[in-house]
Amino acid sequence: MNEKENYLTIKDNGNHELTIKKSRFITTLIRTPTIEEAEKAIAAVSNKYRDATHNTFAYTIGLNDEHVKASDNGEPSGTAGVPELKALQLMKLKNVTAIVTRYFGGIKLGAGGLIRAYSNSVTKAVEAVGVVKRVQQQGVKFQVDYKKFDEIQHYLNQQKIFIDNIDYGVSVTISIYIDEGKLEELENDLTNILSGKIQFIFLPKRYNEVPVTQHNYHDQ
């Protein structure tokens, strides 16, 4: 499995608010796998906060940042959208749109202050909503006898292999999702546990989400 097919993104859509020198900065984060969804999200949030002083935004679409865009929406050039985009990229997030709404509080922040405010707004919002790693995994289905089921289930749980479904019939049919590179190890381990050859039926690949802590997602 190509590791480049795995990527970090926000756990949920959400928002977070900061007050900096009496100005309100409301950050809205939305998962947007396409440009069309990003533009739709920006329009919806801008309409929701149409009385705001500024509705700035940044988005990054694609696993290699194929499509990026940033807007200062009336703030001094380079003080809002670009810092927001850099914050998303520093956290290695993909397919995310950040819209930072500002209600001016009467105290000017200066260019440096604005850059820090918009960048921090995005970073704090991401920390609030959480991060997940979307991992493309291979689906596998196999059958085991009831007398071996508990042992197999214990092994899968111990290896933190995602169990998608268990069907109790004449024998137990277990459907799992696993990184493709770990298939050979899985087959060998199950063969040893069952004292015989295991037959895999392959299911379509899909993305599964693995929670990532705030403290280590920069290292993913």
Q: Termini distance?
A: 16 Å
Mean pLDDT, all residues: 92
Largest sheet: 5 strands, antiparallel
Tally of contiguous helical segments: 5
What proportion of the residues form beta strands (DSSP E)? 35-45%
User: In angstroms, what is the radius of gyration?
Assistant: 23 Å
Q: In one word, what is the shape?
A: elongated
What's the helical proportion of residues? 25-40%
pLDDT < 50 runs, ≥5 residues? none
Give a quick summary of the entry.
With 220 residues, the chain is α+β, with helices and mostly antiparallel strands.
What does this structure look like?
With 220 residues, this protein is an alpha+beta fold. The chain has five helices and ten strands. It has helices spanning 35-48, 81-90, 110-129, 146-158, 183-194; strands at 7-10, 14-20, 23-31, 54-61, 67-71, 96-103, 131-144, 162-168, 172-178, 201-212. The strands form two sheets. Strands 1, 7, 8, 9 and 10 form a five-stranded antiparallel β-sheet that branches. A five-stranded antiparallel β-sheet has the order 2-3-6-4-5, with helices on both faces. Helix 2 (81-90) packs across helix 3 (110-129). The two termini are 16 Å apart.
